[in-house]
Write a structure and sequence with these properties.
The mean pLDDT is about 95. Helices cover about 40% and strands about 25% of the residues. It has a single domain, classed as Chemotaxis protein chec, CATH 3.40.1550.20. It is an alpha+beta fold. It has a six-stranded antiparallel beta sheet. The relative contact order is 0.23.
Length: about 140
């Protein structure tokens, strides 16, 4: 099931994030918390992330410098995690820093194959830019919004 929607949540004192109940089933078999290009933390079901990484690496020469660097990018920035019994996941300090989260408030957004965890400020800035470019993005798909 694709992940949809935008949700405001609060981390507890131990930096645990309670994930929206409707997504927990998709994450119960494990997940990866991924620090990527954007200033957010992406949460992928484990099987989805593994499949995407394998597909991205499939056409690279495994002995090439590029393959080594891409592997390091994908694997060094992805942390395996599991939900606890009440649907929470603990976010590490380096993950919070990457997403610019310095308080307890976060925004969780659906991104299809993943959920993204943003600082409220980071999401507000990103969403404004995304909205401003919506027509350009959809026109590239050969149709308009």
């Amino acid at each position: 099931m694709p992940f949809h929607g935008t949700f405001e949540h609060t981390l507890d004192a131990k930096n645990r994030l309670t994930l929206p109940a409707k997504f927990r089933t998709d994450l119960k078999e494990g997940m990866f918390l991924v620090r990527g290009e954007d200033p957010c933390l992406s949460i992928f079901p484990a099987s989805v992330y593994e499949r995407q990484v394998q597909a991205a690496l499939a056409d690279l020469n495994p002995m090439s410098r590029r393959a080594r660097e891409v592997k390091r990018l994908f694997y060094a920035n992805a942390d395996a995690a599991d939900l606890d019994t009440v649907g929470r996941v603990t976010l590490a300090a380096n993950q919070l820093r990457h997403a610019g989260i310095d308080g307890r408030e976060v925004v969780i957004t659906g991104a299809g194959d993943s959920l993204d965890v943003w600082s409220p400020e980071g999401w507000t800035t990103y969403e404004a830019d995304l909205t401003a470019r919506a027509r350009e993005l959809t026109e590239a798909l050969d149709h308009t919004a």
